[in-house]
Amino acid sequence: MTELIPYENESIARNFIFGFKSSLLMLQTFFVIIVIITREEYIYRAIDSDLSTDSNKYKTAELITIISSSVFFAFLLLEFFVILMGISTKFLKASSFQILLHFWGCILTLFVIINRMHYSLIVIITVIFGLVPFLIELLVLCYYYFQRKIQQNYIQRPGQRTHLSREEVSRRKKIEEKNIQRSRGHHMNNEIEEVKEQRQDDQRIEGQDNPFDDDHQPREEHKDDLHDYEDEDEKYEEDEYYKQDYPRDGPSLNPDRDYDDDYSRSPPRDYDYSRSPRNHSEGYSPNDRSGERSRSGGRSRSGDGSRSGDRNRPRRSDDLSRGMDLD
């Protein structure tokens, strides 16, 4: 069945659909009136011409022709009044299908009138081209009022809310309130659980053996453990780097050793020199490396890259930093 879709442009519907459909209805009504007036010709086409108008066959054929033509006329008239309401013109596909049926109905009715055909064809034309368009018109009318009823019940307009819409609004408000209460309760439950877990953690920490008292002093039973940690710290007071390159017994002047390569392994700039015990005993400072170079007996390089033969000549810290030759 054709789909009922409201036509958006109502001006075109009123101008074209209403005018063309009304013209076909009036033309088809005119043809039906002609059929009623000239019914004898269609009747005698079906029965013998010798029979009189008082015979039973003639009266039966005449009754069928009059009833079918009258019903056809009534369908056309009712459909015309419905069109005047302007409802069916808003439905493009339904109106187009009705126009197509009425157009072919006019052609077939005119063909019956011209050829003086059997009166039974009038019954067929009445059912196909009269009843079917009228049922479509009723269907469109029912669909329109059904949609209007739905809009009145569910579309809320200011000052025009129906009883059903008020109940719907109140029901939705109750559902929203319940959801809010549930969400708040769930959030509070989460906070309570977090507080409980925090308390359990605090109790667990308090139950453990804390090596310090409230005054942050070591307890008697934990003093030995703390002294053990201090002894381990004393083992690493002297840096292993200085133990290797700067032993307590003094530098070993080995003539086969490349002391420039040893100097390349000097500690980084951010090295904490205060950690070495030699710094306190000999007054070592990070900016003064003359003692290191004098003790290590390093060799210098000349401007052309040659090595000097004096290995025991001391160097100043600024000369070492610039890489200058003192020869």
TrEMBL record:
This is Transmembrane protein. The lineage of its organism: Eukaryota, Sar, Alveolata, Ciliophora, Intramacronucleata. It comes from Euplotes crassus. Pfam families: TMEM107. The keyword Cell inner membrane does not apply. The keyword Manganese does not apply. Residues 165-180, 188-226, 262-281, 289-327 have a biased composition (Basic and acidic residues). Keywords: Membrane, Transmembrane, Transmembrane helix. The chain crosses the membrane at residues 16-37, 63-88, 94-114, 121-146. Residues 227-240 have a biased composition (Acidic residues). Residues 165-327 are annotated as: Disordered.
